[in-house]
Structures are given as structure tokens and as C-alpha cells.
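2 proteins. here.
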Amino acid sequence: MKFSQKNKAQNTQEKSVAMPLGRINYILILIGSGLIAASFAMMYLERSVDGVFALFISPVLLIAAYVGIAFAILYRPKQKG
């Protein structure tokens, strides 16, 4: 009887583990992923290797998006109290 009570206590403790990332983290990751997709789409739609988007705008946006995703993964909101 004691064995089953210990299993129930362990199961409830395991279920109460918090998610490693919060809602804001996932929103920031989605924004970064969308920015990456938009950057590659701009380069594809321009169809020119020497174009303005392919040489100047898209690389900057891609670097910003990858840095933003890294920030989103590492970001922890401040604890209240």
C-alpha cells in the first residue's frame, strides 16, 4: 500500500515541473523564424545575385534574426518578489 502512495506522490511531483521556456520565448522564436523566412524570400524574389536585397538588406536581417532567436532561448523574465 505504501508503495502505491509513493508512486502517486512522485507522479504529481513530476507533473508540476515548469516548462523551460515561457510564452514570450516562443513568441520571440516565432518572430525570428518569420524574419529568417522573409529574408530568404526577399532574396529569392529579387532573382539577382548582385541586387540590393541579396547583398545588403537580407544578410543584416538574417544576422539579426539568428541573434534574436539566441536571445529568445536564453531570455528569462525577472522573478517577482
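next one coming up
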Amino acid sequence: MSASHWLKRSGFQARSEHLATEGPNGGLRYVDVWENEADCDRFVEERLHPVIAALLVDVFGDSPPPEPERHVLGVVHLWNP
């Protein structure tokens, strides 16, 4: 099942794009383009945070790192042939 199909079956509007790049100081930077911010927020809270929280406890114990900075971009155009 494609990620887009799974997201729609789970009640989320599909995200248009997912991109992972190297961050400027190492690590990873993720870019996700969603149909709307509300579905993105709900996905993060209901699906992503529970999984990530469990992993962070295994790595960092009771002192997890802060939430990554989030930047909302005003998309002018997305080309998806």
C-alpha cells in the first residue's frame, strides 16, 4: 500500500511531497508538503510523536532533545507532472 493511500485511509489528506536532505550542520532536514496544516499537525501528534517519543527514550532516557524547529512555508507553486 502506498504512503498516500495509507494516509487517506487513516483520514489524512495526502501529503504531496516528502524530502529528506542533509542539514547545514549535519543531521537531517525534512520537508513535507501537505494539503493543509491541520492534517499535518494531526499526523505529527497522532502518528509521528508516539513513535519518535519511544525511540528518543531509548536513546536519551528522561532528557530528550527539544522539538525540532518547524518552518511553515507559503508555497507559491508545486509542479507534480
